[in-house]
Amino acid sequence: MRRIERVKMKTNIIANVAISLDGKIEGPNGEYDWCFTDQDYGMKEFLSRTQLIISGAKSYQTMVNEGGDLEKFFGKIPWIVFSKNAVQSHPLVTHVHLHAVDYIRELKNNTPQNIWLFGGALLFHSLLQAKLIDEIMLSVHPIILGGGKDFFSNIPNRIHLSLINCKTFHSGLVQQQYQINY
Description:
By secondary structure, the chain is of the alpha/beta class. It has helices spanning about 45-50, 55-65, 70-75, 100-110, 120-130; strands at about 10-20, 25, 50-55, 80, 95, 115-120, 135-140, 150, 160-170, 175-180. The mean pLDDT is about 90.
């Protein structure tokens, strides 16, 4: 009789971020009008592999304020928004008041899936420090903003990465995907 081995599926949390060449995720006034929107840049394929989106309240609210049609941009992928305060309701959104690290740790242990960490520098830093993020996918835009919010500020220790993929586009955007080696 042949033994069947069960392979445990893994939950991957992927921080997929648009970033300027000088490491900013938004301009000095919170703007992101510098992000390229002239083509797909692999988003349709990325979303086809994504089962859940997580974000902080500010990132979620920014999307809602930009038109509010989450399904138009992201399909029917459910969202979890971490916030101590109330957020605008949406049928796809679950608002979680609990500490994000504890919640995500439990989620990773019980639900194999690909999770997109959509935004929230504070959420990114806390999950990175707790060693819960598996990959970082940077869409590096060929622009130097000079001011704005740094993505990699206040990270206390070195974090080693392994390059998984790198793709260049005619627009000058370079998409780099790294596995985190904790």
